[in-house]
Structures are given as C-alpha cells and as structure tokens.
Amino acid sequence: MEIFLDTANVDDIKRFARIGIIEGVTTNPALIAKEGRNFMHVVEEICTIIDGPVSAEVISTDADKMIQEGRMIAGIHENIVVKIPAIPAGFEAVYTLAQERIKTNLTIIYTSNQALLGAKVGATYVSPFVGRLDATSTNGADLIKEISQIYNNYDFKTKILAASMRNVVYAKHAALAGAHVATIPPEVLDEMMKSELTDLGLAGFLKDWETLPEEKRQYFAH
Ligand code: E4P
Q1: Which of 53, 90, 131, 191 is most buried, by the most CB atoms less than 10 A from its CB?
Q2: Stated pTM of the model
Q3: Residue 207 falls in the annotated catalytic set
C-alpha cells in the first residue's frame, strides 16, 4: 500500500519525505485554508518537495467550472492530481478531464456505486472517506473491500485511495482491506511508527549495554 500525507503543511511534508515513508500528498480546501497561504503557492511548493502525486481540489460545484479549474490546477505541475467531489457534476468533470489525460481523484466517496461509476468515467483514484463513514456507524473497511472486489471483478485500473484516516486502526484496516493507497494525517503517521513495547525493549537493551566496561564500548565513542 502506498502512503500519501494528508496535509498542506510543508514542514510536515518535508519531515516525512526525509523519513522516506510517503509517496504523495493529498490536500483539500479545508487543509489549505488551515495553512492560511495562497492556494497556488502552497501547491507549487508541495510539488517541489515530493516527487509523487499531489492532489489539489476544485472548489466549484458546476461541471464546466470544475473542468476549467481542473485544467488550471493540472497546469501547476505534472504530478498534480485534480480532486473532484463525487457529485453528479463531478463525474462529468472527471470524464472530460480523463479524456484530456489529466489525472483525477474522485473524492468524498461514501458508496461502492460511486466508486464503480468513478472507475467508469476514468478517475485515476477514488477516495472513500473511511473515518467519516465509521462516525455514522457504518464500517469503512467494508466499503474498501466492496470497492476492491468490484474493481477486481472488472479489472478496473482506478486506484482505491483510503481517506479520512483519523487514527492508526483505520490505516491498518485500509491495508488489510486491500486499498492501493492510504492518505494519512501527520499525527496519525507519527503514531504508526511507535509502540510502547518497542520503547521498553530498547530501554532494556541500552541499560544492559551500560554494564559493558567503557573501554569495550569505544567503537561507539563520539
Ligand atoms: C483526503 O483526501 C481527505 O480530504 C481527507 O482524508 C479527509 O479527512 P477528514 O475526514 O479527517 O477531514
């Protein structure tokens, strides 16, 4: 499973790019607004940090305007993926942009039928909102499994991008359910690297190491 960072914060993107565990970035209007920066500037900067897909979203809800915005956003950088909401006008916009070979991410998906139609119109990615679905007592991981089965049945090339990963359990379920990608917020990705048992195990090793006479530890002297 590929991992994208779900943020528009360039410091976080730089930090995780250095660690080497992210392959792309997703933003949305709310995440851009949180940074308080010019949309174009922030998206351009993200594309200079990470050499992989960067999703940037249209804000219109009318098909023609979405297409116009999509073309403009796609012109920012070759790695841009135009994010389009899964409303009826959005399907039309994805279809037109896909004909122009512009990559798209059909977002705010809550049903496998939306994902099926997203694949039919040529979306590069579909983004089921797993966490938000769980918040309504519906199992988000099941939605990923359903979409996965539908895509396998018909050999669709559209990728499942599990979104709204609000905690580490969602990320694990996305991987188990066969998502191609999960987009994960920085604080959740930080948690995924940690285990209290790892910290405890390491503390024990380092404590025992101190029992070795100093002259026998000189290889590690700084
Ligand atoms: C990413 O594509 C989505 O916009 C994001 O994951 C939504 O996450 P949220 O439900 O926590 O806002």
Answers
A1: 90
A2: 0.95
A3: no
